[in-house]
Every structure is written in structure tokens, then in C-alpha cells.
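Hypothesis: this fold can be encoded by more than one sequence.
Test: take the C-alpha cells below, design a sequence, compare later.
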């Protein structure tokens, strides 16, 4: 029945009561009450032989059958949940027995908490739940049923077997770890004109931030890496025409949305996208954590589904091996051609959680299998899938890093896929992926698994350039200060740019990398640093002859099998400046909105006065083409963050 039906019934006038029937009913009720009083001290609760739960039924049925409740949908909504909670508590705590009723003057109109406090000490070791009564013995739930008859002053006390007053629900220990990294500072061009950093194509931070927000909490600030959030999205940057030059750079200079006195230098890189028929054969080893900590729906079950998706993407000529670790490492599947999908999928489906986490032994076994099926002209990669809990093993973290670096030099790379919460060791996973020339992704949903392992499988598995480094020199005649947005954990020394021994990030087939600087033009009121007293007054003479240059960009990279790096350069000039924000390409504006969002979550001071609503407006205006719904999801996350931030501030 609907609420409208209940309202119609409630509006109907009931028939006039029959005096004789009322007298007979009252007499029968009093006889039943007297019989109950006579049997009250029976050790079984009743001489009639009925089950003790029948008393509860006699209490509850009249409440639900009264016209007061039947005629009101609201009353039903109030009483039914209360009954469910009471029933759950009674069933959860063991058998029900009857106790001697407390004196009437201790319970009449008293709250349940006060009644429990006044219970006699004879019930030691047992908890008392006392319900105030009304004239016919029906408990008054929340005052919905009034007390009347003098006989109702006796209480019906239900006692429950319990060894203690309360047992708090166990709380899951949060052992998630993130590497602390303060936001990049503002630097003066006069004293520090060169900025150098490694490329980063990881996306783990965005997925983790999304999961935190959807779960109703703002993310840990150390979990926010702005560059990973920006690089999560596909952008239509122009790519190179041939594979000889592995990527192409596009530069835009635009007004800063959160500071009218500065500008943004936006650099978009896109790698050459090889067609599937030109992709080399892959030798993959799935290194899967099956320890006890993985026994949660968002861990091993999701992991298995993710790898099933990847297997469906592989070519028949590819090779798959599977190693698990929990207490000790074990080989589940020897190198097997991907065309034998039934055997591979059966091995994945048979994975079961249990044991502690001996990650080091598993990595050694995985590398041994990768070496066994090594493809000289192909891709050899270990794919570690875990919640990041490496807590047992014969080697230290430094030994693990040394092993991964040595195998990287032999041509076997390592990628890391993170799952679940509670044990997530983000710092260790980032370090392993960076030392292994691989990517780090966080899989929180099956849709994210499809994005990472199916839609972007080419960029995830097949590198086109290694040790990719950025270096930009700012013209002191035009630019006073700069601040690199993100890339805090990827910073390099100036001399590292030309040192081929220094490791840096890789770029895969079709990968997009975006870097954004906030720059302060010379003479702007936003300049923070005072001029140097002893600086060369003729420093302007050292500026390039072409004063239209704002900066000079250099890119260094190695081809996948090469040991020496190659170089490309690009001047940033006035021709790259777009003064009207509405004329800036949509993808550039959207990536700037994501950068603003990441900085806001990380607590960057420059964004303190820039509201989430402004970020939302910037992203909505630049949403553009969104075939997979990633940008629509970003808008939702921005709204959630705004609400959570407002709630946290109250």
C-alpha cells in the first residue's frame, strides 16, 4: 500500500464501540494479565509451555495492529526500524530470559539508560534492557504509545547473556604510507634560471584521490602528486610524424586563472603511437601478491578481473608467466603463449589469498622467469600487482632497488599495479616502478583496470623512449620568477640533464606528458623576491639577442636500446602567448583546471584563495570531447571535494 492509501484509511471514521464487547475484552485482558503475574517467577518464564519468544510476540503484535500505527505511514517508518534494531540486539547477544520487575517508582517514565543504571546488582555479568510499559503490557516505543492503566507500572525486563557491557566493532588498521614532498617553491630567475626534472607518466595519484573522495574523505596531502593527476587524462596534443623523433612538444603561454599578475607556461608532449601490428612481441610475468592482506573484494578479486582483461588484449605471439608470493614465492604458470588463453585464465582464476608477504622472493622468481623467456627484440616486463605491503623478505629495500636496477640494465623492466586500501605503500611502489623503468598505476575499479590495461595497453607496455628529461632556461630579461607545478619527486640536478648515467622516466607508445610552470613576468607586482644587491647590473646584456624569447626548452631521451641520449630544443617566444583565456585550446584549459584541483587538495598556498567553484567553472567550460566520461567524473570529484572541504572547515 502507498502512503496515500494509508492516509485514506486514517481519515475514515471507525464504527462506534460496542459496550458489551468492550467489557468482555477488558475482562479477558485482565484475566490474562493476572495469569501472567502468577507465572512471573517461573524459571521457564511461563507454565503454559510456550517458547520465551512468545512474550515478545505478544508485546509487539498489538503495537503493529493498533489503528494509531496502521493509519500512519510515518509511524510505521519510525516503529519498524526500531523493532529491527531491537530484534537484532536480542538475537545477537544470546538467549532471552525474564527478570524480576523493578519497582514501579524506578521506571515510570524513566529513560532506558536510567532504568539500566538502577538495575539490582544481582544481575552481575548480565546486561539489562528495560522497556517502560503501558496498561496492557505493550512497550512504549519512543512515546508513540501512551501509558495509562495502573497495572502498566510494572516493567517487563529482558535480560541478555553478555560477558561485558559493550564490545566495540574492530577498526581496520590504516597502515598506508606516502612519501612526503613539499610543493615546489618560487625560484628567482636571477639566481636560479634553470629547471630540470624527469618525465613522469604515472597515474596512481589520481585514482587514489578519486577513491578517497568517493569514500567521503579528502585525500592525504602526500598522496596528491599534481603531475600524475594532470597526466591521467588523454589530451589531443600533436604527436610526431615519424618514429625517428619519438615525441613532439607544443607550448602555450596563458594568463594564470588564480593570479592575474602571473602567467602559465604550458608544455604538452605526445609520444609516437605505434600501430598494434608494429608493436614488438611481449614477454610478461605477472607477479601477484596473494598474501592474507589481499583477501578483500577490492584487492585479489579485482586484481584477477584486471589481469583477465589484459590477457584478452595480448597478441597470440606474446608470452605470459605467473608467479605468486605469500610466505614464499611460487610459480603458478611457466612461460605460456598468449594464444593458450584457457590455461592462463585458469591459472588466474585459481589464485587464493593466504599467508604473509615475502615480496623479495617473489620478485627474484619473477625475474628468473622473465630471463627464461627473454625476447631480445621484444618487450620484457614484470608486472607486480599488490597492495604494497612488503613486510617480510630476505632483502632490504635497498637490496630490492639494486636488483631491479640491475635487471633494468639487462632489458627487463618492472611496472607496478596497486590495489585496495589499508596496507597501500605508495612510497615503495613509486620507488620500485621508477627504478624499474616502469609505470605505477592504482586500480580502484574494473573501469580503471580497463583504462590502464586495455585502452592504454600500448603506452603501458611498449616504451618508445627512455630516460626522458626536461630542462628549461628562463630569460632573466623577461621572466623574474617561476614555479614548477608538481614533479616534486622527479626533480633533477642541473648537471643530471647531460649525464647519461642518471635514470629518468620512460615514455610509452602514445603517452602524453604535460608540464606547467607558473611564471612571473619581470616588473609584475606578483614578484616575491627582492633584487640581489650585488647582482650584475648588466645582466640584461647576457639575455638572448632575440628578446622575444621567454625561455628555452631542451628535451633529452634515449631510444629503448641505446646507451647515449639524443637532444631536441624549442624556444618559447611571444608567438606562443595567448592573451585571451577563451582563445586557449580546450585541452590546455582543462589540464590547467586539473592542475589547480591537485594544488588545492595538496594545500599549495598559491591556490588558497582560489575556490573549488572557480576550478569547477574552468573545467566545465573546457570539458570538450569526453568519449569515456573521464572529464565528467572529474567535475563530480571537484564538487565532492568542495563539500568535504567546507565540512572540514566547520
Amino acid at each position: 500500500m502507498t502512503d496515500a492509501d494509508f492516509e485514506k484509511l486514517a481519515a475514515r471514521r471507525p464504527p462506534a464501540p460496542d459496550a458489551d464487547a468492550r467489557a468482555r475484552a477488558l475482562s479477558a485482558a485482565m484475566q490474562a494479565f493476572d495469569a501472567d503475574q502468577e507465572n512471573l517467577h517461573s524459571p521457564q518464564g511461563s507454565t503454559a509451555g510456550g517458547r520465551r519468544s512468545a512474550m515478545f510476540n505478544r508485546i509487539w503484535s498489538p503495537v503493529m495492529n493498533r489503528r494509531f500505527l496502521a493509519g500512519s505511514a510515518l509511524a510505521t517508518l519510525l516503529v519498524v526500524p526500531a523493532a529491527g534494531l531491537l530484534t537484532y540486539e536480542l538475537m545477537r547477544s544470546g538467549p532471552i530470559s525474564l527478570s524480576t520487575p523493578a519497582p514501579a517508582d524506578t521506571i515510570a517514565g524513566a529513560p532506558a539508560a536510567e532504568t539500566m543504571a538502577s538495575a539490582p546488582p544481582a544481575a552481575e555479568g548480565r546486561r539489562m534492557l528495560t522497556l517502560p510499559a503501558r496498561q496492557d503490557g505493550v512497550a512504549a516505543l519512543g512515546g508513540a504509545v501512551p501509558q495509562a492503566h495502573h497495572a502498566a507500572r510494572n516493567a517487563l525486563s529482558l535480560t541478555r547473556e553478555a560477558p561485558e557491557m559493550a564490545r566495540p566493532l574492530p577498526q581496520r588498521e590504516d597502515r598506508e604510507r606516502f612519501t612526503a614532498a613539499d610543493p615546489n617553491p618560487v625560484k628567482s630567475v636571477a639566481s636560479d634560471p634553470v629547471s630540470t626534472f624527469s618525465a613522469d607518466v604515472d597515474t596512481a595519484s589520481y585514482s587514489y584521490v578519486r577513491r578517497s573522495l568517493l569514500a567521503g574523505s579528502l585525500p592525504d596531502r602526500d598522496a596528491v602528486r599534481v603531475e600524475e593527476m594532470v597526466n591521467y587524462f588523454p589530451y589531443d596534443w600533436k604527436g610526431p610524424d615519424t618514429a625517428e623523433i619519438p615525441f613532439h612538444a607544443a607550448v602555450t603561454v596563458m594568463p594564470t586563472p588564480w593570479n592575474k599578475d602571473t602567467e602559465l607556461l604550458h608544455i604538452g608532449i605526445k609520444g609516437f603511437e605505434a600501430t598494434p601490428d608494429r608493436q614488438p612481441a611481449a614477454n610478461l610475468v605477472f607477479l601477484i601478491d596473494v598474501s592474507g592482506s589481499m583477501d578483500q573484494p577490492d584487492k585479489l578479486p579485482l586484481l584477477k578481473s584486471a589481469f583477465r582483461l589484459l590477457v584478452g588484449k595480448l597478441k597470440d605471439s606474446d608470452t605470459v608467466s605467473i608467479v605468486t608470493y605469500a610466505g614464499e614465492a611460487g610459480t603458478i604458470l611457466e612461460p605460456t603463449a598468449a594464444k593458450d588463453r584457457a590455461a592462463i585464465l585458469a591459472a588466474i582464476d585459481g589464485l587464493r589469498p593466504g599467508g604473509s608477504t615475502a615480496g623479495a622472493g617473489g620478485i627474484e622468481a619473477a625475474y628468473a622467469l622473465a630471463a627464461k623467456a627473454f625476447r631480445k627484440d621484444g618487450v620484457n616486463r614484470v608486472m607486480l600487482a599488490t597492495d604494497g605491503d612488503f613486510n617480510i623478505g630476505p632483502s632490504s629495500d635497498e637490496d630490492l632497488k639494486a636488483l631491479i636496477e640491475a635487471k633494468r640494465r639487462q632489458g627487463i623492466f618492472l611496472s607496478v599495479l596497486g590495489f585496495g586500501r589499508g596496507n597501500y605503500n605508495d612510497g615503495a611502489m613509486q620507488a620500485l616502478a621508477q627504478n624499474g623503468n616502469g609505470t605505477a598505476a592504482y586500480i580502484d575499479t574494473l573501469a580503471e583496470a580497463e583504462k590502464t590495461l586495455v585502452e592504454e595497453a600500448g603506452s603501458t607496455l611498449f616504451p618508445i623512449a627512455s630516460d626522458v628529461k626536461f630542462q628549461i632556461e628562463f630569460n632573466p630579461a623577461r621572466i623574474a620568477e617561476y614555479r614548477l607545478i608538481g614533479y616534486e619527486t622527479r626533480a633533477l640536478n642541473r648537471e643530471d640533464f647531460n649525464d647519461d648515467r642518471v635514470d629518468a622516466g620512460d615514455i610509452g607508445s602514445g603517452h602524453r606528458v604535460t608540464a606547467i610552470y607558473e611564471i612571473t613576468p619581470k616588473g609584475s607586482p606578483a614578484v616575491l623576491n627582492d633584487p640581489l644587491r650585488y647582482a650584475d647590473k648588466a645582466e640584461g646584456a647576457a639575455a638572448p639577442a632575440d628578446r622575444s624569447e621567454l625561455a628555452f626548452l631542451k628535451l633529452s631521451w634515449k631510444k629503448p636500446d641505446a646507451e647515449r641520449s639524443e637532444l631536441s630544443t624549442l624556444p618559447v617566444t611571444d608567438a606562443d602567448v595567448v592573451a585571451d583565456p577563451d582563445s586557449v585550446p580546450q585541452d590546455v584549459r582543462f589540464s590547467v583546471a586539473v592542475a589547480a584541483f591537485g594544488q588545492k587538495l595538496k594545500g599549495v598556498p598559491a591556490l588558497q584563495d582560489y575556490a573549488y567553484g572557480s576550478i569547477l567553472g574552468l573545467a566545465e567550460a573546457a570539458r570538450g570531447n569526453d568519449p569515456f566520461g573521464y572529464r565528467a567524473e572529474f567535475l563530480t570529484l571537484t564538487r565532492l571535494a568542495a563539500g568535504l572541504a567546507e565540512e572540514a572547515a566547520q
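The chain has three domains: 3-161, 187-274+464-525+545-649, 283-434+448-454. The chain has a mean pLDDT of 79.
Hypothesis status: open.
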